[in-house]
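Morning run. Coffee first, then this:
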Amino acid sequence: MNLLSGHARLAGVFGHPITHSRSPRLHGFWLQRYGIDGAYIPLGVAPSGFAAAVRALVDLGFRGANVTIPHKLAAFEICDAVAPFARRAGAVNTLIFRDGRIEGSNTDGFGFLESIREAAPGWRADAGPAVLLGAGGAARAIAAALLDAGAPRVTLVNRTAAKAEALARDLGGPIHVADRPSLEDAALLVNTTSLGMQGQPGLEVDLAPLPASAVVADIVYVPLETRLLAAARARGLVAVDGLGMLLHQARPGFEAWFGVAPQVDQALRDVVAADIPKRDGA
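And here it is:
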């Protein structure tokens, strides 16, 4: 029984913890901008209660939800249907509820590509090889998106080679594993690890070998300018912070739940980034 029939459209975000999430601020901005009668609610749920909580939202008439740490794999398992890219990425970050069914998708790869295209107009995935630092869930989604977009080669550099090799086997295609970044012909360098995040050690990479046309991206957005991005800007390279990925990955879910294709612009960025340090120590 739909307990909220005729009421505001509702969606939310699952996480544990959830207080750090900027998604409510992000979606709240869009709801206000587009005059939508709706709400987007933070849902702090422990792993043991995740499946029951999702099914409760379906019964309550929610349109869907985002999923963040540590629930992305559990979300994959609970879905009645999983979009092809989410199946390839092995994780779900967006749930859509339709007619009592749970549909799952993964918008992280889309969000990453859109953030690069926004920051570097004219950028193309097929412009040259990409080097990814890390081999976790974010690396999996980004690598899959780059390969699907035509990247001629993706190289994974990870502390644990076995994990990177398993990811490369899963994805297939022109994806390789190396013990150190080889940047001489790289068109794109991406940090997908937590190194450089506030409270974490900084990431030290010699960017001197990178071509002058290369793009350097960091999925970390606290602070907005990590040590890696500062080094890239010092070399005159295009540097892309992690906030754009967060903003763009939210677009498909918002459109599915609330019926409007939202725009990412400076006003949204300013609201979401209002209390984020601009750089280490700032």
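Residues 108-119 form the longest helix (12 residues). Good start to the day.
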